[in-house]
Design brief:
The protein is mainly β. It has a single domain, classed as Maltoporin, Chain A (Beta Barrel), CATH 2.40.170. It contains two helices and 22 strands. The strands form two sheets. The protein has a 20-stranded antiparallel barrel. It has a two-stranded antiparallel sheet with strand order 6-7.
Length: 428
């Protein structure tokens, strides 16, 4: 199975490469160079004995896109030379690369590929396959400045047998490696066959099965399964409702950690305009462990986003639980609540301002892997961006973050950090 996906992976690159040679290559390649000066008042995210520092990053980059409706590549690659003023022992090379590729054939076989690579020592890692505008970060926080890297590659192949009918399979390989003495390396392999079938214009079904294999450096290894069945009713041209059942089973090499989850949800999606969309869902879950007491509660999720040319914004809420694996902390099953919001407004075509905020809460779930953990993470920020010339961009950012915790009934993991960043980028 894995060999099949690697063949698909290689085929996508060969197909995309052939389209590159037939296009105006130079007009689609945009190299850049950026310089960022950052100040932080709490470099190590400590509760006491805070250390401040200035961090300088020289960041060459490359963007390439020849994507159209049926095929192409989107590539955004950044390499950074990071220098610390007061702590030169922390100097390192950073990287942040994102690739998307697709090839849709006339025989109705479609190929897709996503790849995300990051090398960083930032204590908070952004969720992969998202953008900064999504304002979504992993729950786990690295508790020391240590270099880590993550590569997530996700090829997908599907067969389209109707306007909206598809059957396919997705594979994900997620590798996390860290130099931290308190975190651990991990590798995830995930296989997900699925089918989407519409009985008519109003009624459709979606079925999905997922198998997850996780190998950890020191924690018990994981074998997981997930079944998702959804019925969708498009009762209006702009609106649809769904009812969904999800069953998840988590088995570890230490059987006392095993658990399974039953979850049912109902939801609604609505397109207000071509630029304004929203969705909401609510449900109930029950987590049953092999040992100890179970967890249950209400799940909910909602989002509202606008992509207007002058003002873009997004608002999201999430509640119920989260499974935190393949991260710096591997927190496991956690009760979890999150609210995020961001807005960017263009004062004119060259000047924009932005605001973002988030709050995340683990109210204490007596979790399978890390008992008695409770914390709240607050984040807020502002951005001012100015483009005096077509090839030159200047941006000023301010970020605030705070974590309140009683981790093992201690307060040592609490912190407050303020940081400011000035970035100048020239793009050809």
């Amino acid at each position: 199975m894995i060999r099949v996906f690697f063949v698909i992976f290689l085929s996508l690159y060969l197909i995309a490469a052939s389209s590159v040679y037939g296009a105006d290559f130079l007009s689609q390649v945009h190299p850049s160079i950026g310089v960022q000066e950052e100040y932080t008042d709490n470099l190590q995210l400590t509760n006491e004995n805070k250390i401040s520092d200035f961090i300088t990053t020289v960041q060459p980059g490359l963007k390439y896109s020849n994507m159209d409706a049926t095929s192409g590549i989107d590539l955004d690659a950044l390499l950074g030379c990071v220098f610390y003023d007061k702590n030169p022992n922390l100097n390192y090379i950073s990287s942040n690369n994102n690739l998307k590729a697709q090839y849709l054939t006339t025989e109705h076989f479609n190929f897709y590929l996503q790849d995300s690579f990051i090398r960083s020592n930032d204590p908070r890692e952004q969720e992969y396959f998202t953008t900064a505008a999504n304002n979504e970060y992993m729950l786990a926080i690295q508790t020391q400045r240590a270099v880590y890297w993550r590569n997530v590659v996700e090829p997908k192949i599907e067969y389209q047998f109707g306007d909206e009918n598809r059957v396919g399979i997705t594979y994900r390989n997620n590798v996390y490696q860290t130099e931290s003495s308190v975190s651990e390396n991990s590798i995830e392999n995930y296989v997900q066959p699925y089918i989407s079938y519409w009985l008519n214009k109003q009624n459709g079904i979606y079925l999905e099965y997922g198998y997850d294999n996780g190998v950890f450096e020191s924690s018990p290894d994981l074998n997981g399964q997930r079944v998702d069945a959804r019925y969708i009713n498009r009762f209006m041209p702009r609106a649809s409702a769904f009812v969904e059942y999800i069953f998840s089973d988590r088995s570890f090499s230490s059987p006392e950690l095993d658990y399974y989850i039953n979850e049912g949800d109902v939801g609604l999606t609505y397109t207000f305009t071509s630029t304004l969309k929203g969705s909401a869902q609510v449900g109930y879950y029950r987590m049953t462990p092999t040992t100890g007491s179970g967890q249950d509660g209400i799940t909910f999720k909602g989002d509202l986003s606008s992509t207007d040319k002058q003002t873009t914004y997004s608002i999201g809420i999430q509640g119920g639980y989260i499974e935190d694996y393949f991260t710096s902390e591997n927190l496991g099953f956690q009760k979890y609540y999150r609210a995020t919001g961001s807005i960017t407004h263009f004062l004119d075509r060259r000047l924009s301002i932005g605001l973002w905020g988030s709050i995340e809460r683990d109210p204490g779930s007596n979790s399978v892997s890390v008992p008695s953990q409770r914390f709240t993470i607050l984040g807020a920020g502002a951005n001012l961006s100015y483009q005096p010339l077509k090839w030159l961009k200047i941006s000023l950012d301010y970020n605030y973050s705070q974590r309140n915790s009683n981790y093992y009934y201690e307060m040592t993991n609490e912190y407050i950090e303020n940081k400011c960043m000035l970035t100048v980028t020239a793009t050809y």
